Amino acid sequence: MEITYYGHSCFAAKINGKHILFDPYITQNPLASHIDVSSIKADYIFVSHAHYDHIYDAIQIAKNTGAKVVGNFEIYSWLTKNGIENAFPMNPGGKFAFDFGTVKCVNALHSSSFEDGSYGGIACGFVISSEEGNFYYSGDAALSLDMKLVVDFMQPDFAVFPIGDLLTMGVEEAITAAKLIGVTNVLGVHYDTFGFIVLDKQKALDDFKNSGLELHLPEIGSTIEL
What domains are there in the chain, each with its CATH number? Predict the structure, then answer.
């Protein structure tokens, strides 16, 4: 599956000809200053929770592309109030068959609020199943035994986990999460953007390798196959 990394927790998957974008936070990320947001393709945008570093560019990209934006009910309501007519609500426990594949919304142990401090609903992760492959994006989740339930819905080919620690899982917890769901390939996200989540990349790569796993840390703007 073709995966493009846009920095922080923002990435896109190309599935069955559709461009699926997750947690768009680009224009306010100095590490992604070379990314032209207006050139990003998106047929769908999935938002894991309401924190600004996951939702900041959702409205702009949705207006540029006409993408359907999927998030919990509070995010759906916020998007609708901000002029996004193609918003779509999905709370944990929900599942829907889109034209690229099926998405199951699952719990993510994390806080969630909009930039003004208002309630952002429950934080979410997404389990994506398609003819071209399956994966689990945990959102900003802490390690939880709930992750074991992912394999009840499908067996992922890879996972996308935060590894920056402090606000989310760190490397050690992400390794445990990978073993819980039986994947050997992990795309690491949510690191380096802020001073308190700086990652020792080589140590992280080595720790995964020593655990029999492979950690992928693509350059911002680059595309890899998973």
Answer: 2-225 (3.60.15.10)
